[in-house]
Amino acid sequence: MDLNKALRKAIATGDVDLGANQCREAVASDEARLVILASNCPSGVRETVLEAEANVYQFDGTNSDLGAACGKPFPISAVTIIEGGNSEILRLKPNL
Predict the structure, then answer these.
(1) 20-28 vs 43-51: helix axis angle to the nearest 10?
(2) Is residue 85 exposed (0-12), middle (13-18) or buried (19+ Cβ within 10 Å)?
(3) What are the φ/ψ torsions at residue 62 (nearest 5 degrees)?
(4) Residues 57, 37 contacting (CB under 8 angstroms)
(5) Using CA atoms in the order 38, 30, 16, 42, what is the torsion angle rounded to 10 degrees?
(6) Does 1 have pLDDT greater than 90?
(7) CA gap 46, 9 in Å, rounded
(8) Which of 16, 24, 29, 79 could be bridged to 36 by S-S, CB 3.0 to 4.6 A?
(9) Are 16 and 81 in contact (CB under 8 A)?
(10) What is the pLDDT of residues 6-23, one digit of tens each?
(11) Which pTM does this prediction carry?
(12) Which residues, in sequence order, are bridge partners of residue 58?
């Protein structure tokens, strides 16, 4: 699966939250089906997500790389997939 294409398709057709604060909220309310974290995601966000035992995929790149993969011109530390839409993003196997 091409992760960049899957991310963009999920953003376009699904229910996806971008950013650390939205990630924390979705994890706390048990809405997150998958969380994708940048390699340089703030440790507090990483700890919150792991403590909640959410499905977490470690993105192989920085927050700038993750932002670009999402088609955004700004860095993104966390992407929270609530509904994958027409993408195959939820087929990603958690690796954290």
Answers:
(1) 20
(2) middle
(3) -80, 180
(4) yes
(5) -20
(6) no
(7) 25
(8) 79
(9) yes
(10) 999 999 999 999 999 999
(11) 0.95
(12) 37
pLDDT per position as a tens digit, 48-80:
999 999 999 999 999 999 999 999 999 999 999
Are the CB atoms for 72 and 18 separated by under 8 Å?
yes
For residue 49, what are its two tokens? 């997500």
* Cα dihedral 45, 50, 51, 53 sign: positive
> In a 3-state reduction of DSSP, which class is residue 86?
coil
* 81 token code pair: 């997939």
DSSP strand E in the chain: where? 15-18, 34-37, 56-58, 78-83
Question: What residue ranges define each of the domains in the chain, with the CATH number in brackets?
Answer: 3-86 (3.30.1330.30)
On whether the CB atoms of residues 57 and 94 are closer than 8 A, the answer is yes
